[in-house]
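Hey, can you fold this one?
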Amino acid sequence: MSIGTFPRIVATDLDGTLLTTAGTVTARTRQALQAARAAGAEIVFVTARAPRGVVEIARQAGVTGTAICSNGAIVYDVATDEITASSPLAPGTARKVIEALTLALPGVGLAVETGRNVLAEAAYTRRVEHDLASYLEVESVFDGGRPIVKLLALSPAHTADEMYAAVAGAIGDLAEVTYSGVEGILEISAAGVTKAVTLDRLCAERGLAAADVVAFGDMPNDLAVLLYAGAGYAMANAHPMVLSAAGHRTLSNDEDGVAVVLEDLLAGG
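Sure. Predicted structure:
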């Protein structure tokens, strides 16, 4: 992104980035997003959340466009509540990934995000309070043949960093393995499916380039987007890996870090 130009795409993660620790959009952040839209930018949520987890945030933020959900596996139209594109993990590949997971992390709990629901096996004990209605208890994540938009692996005895170190080599290029803000959980998508890849596709559809993007994030699943964008900002509260690799840094999510950068860009900074 060249100096003195305003970005055409504002790509922002939600949890730990746009949202406060309390899970809300502040008035300052909403105002900055609206000002960015008025200046010609499209606001694109780029999140690990499923579409249903985006709707209320979009309402708070006054955003009605496209969201990239489930770490890039879903493109979602907020206004129409329509999943416009999906890149699920093939069942055969998922079985190989699960075999590697269970060997590396005995007792691991498994769940699947389908895009509309979470299929949870008995050992997957995590529940997101605001999303309880979407959980379906299953004997196997393969029950019903539903799409495996994102495979979730839970190991409460480990940190996400430890889990990643234990399984990344075994899974190799079978799938994309990453993690966001929840300890003890890995998020696994189809090979080649990342937030950055899907964002690049969205930009190409609009005739835009990476240089037209300003991006914000805080966790390892955001890093590819921050490195892709013309200007990628790590939040002050970001994972150490993200802080060390991102080209730019802003204030924390509880200090309106996204708004601070947008305000500066709007002022010609």
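The chain is about 30% helix and 20% strand. Let me know if you want another pass with a different chain boundary.
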